[in-house]
Amino acid sequence: MPGGIHFTREMNLEKKDFWQLIDASRLAADNDPNAQVDTLGALLLQLEADQIVEFDRVMVEHVNRAYHWDVWAAGYIIGGGCSDDGFMDFMGWLISKGEQVFETALRDADSLADVVEEIDGECQVEGILYAPGKAWERKTGRPGGDFPQHMFAFQNGPHGESWDEDEVDARLPRLAARFNG
Predict the structure, then answer these.
(1) Rounded mean pLDDT of the chain?
(2) What is the rounded CA–CA span in Å between residue 25 and residue 99?
(3) N or C: which end of the chain has fewer CB within 10 A?
(4) pLDDT at residue 6 greater than cutoff 90
């Protein structure tokens, strides 16, 4: 099993296992976020089908945690704008960077000024979010519509204090200086 991760069929995937798979996929892809989608898919195929579903559940929990106005502001500044779909892709990128970057960004989205590299482009990695479903389809031979869905908790909007476009730079001054300066 990759990265020293060992499961028994009865074991659930834990948070640490989730992040170990993310880290292993990023390292195998030499930090290229687009290549990481493929490496993550290959790692997920080594799991049992129910563990792939559990990986997706843990990922959705993290996306729900990151559904915050400050994180969206970071995506907006880095990408020169950020739609709803773009924000989902940004959260995929954020997860792809690993637990330390993810947790630090949730506490201080401006910290991403020190993280973004040229290889990250606009920091949108949609494929990370779909990797579990695609791996599950390949593993089980069943259609994607059969993949158990985990619900994104977006009905009440992002957490935190909202912002207007004209105030976003003041909210995250380090990112604004780097990407708008």
Answers:
(1) 90
(2) 13
(3) C
(4) no
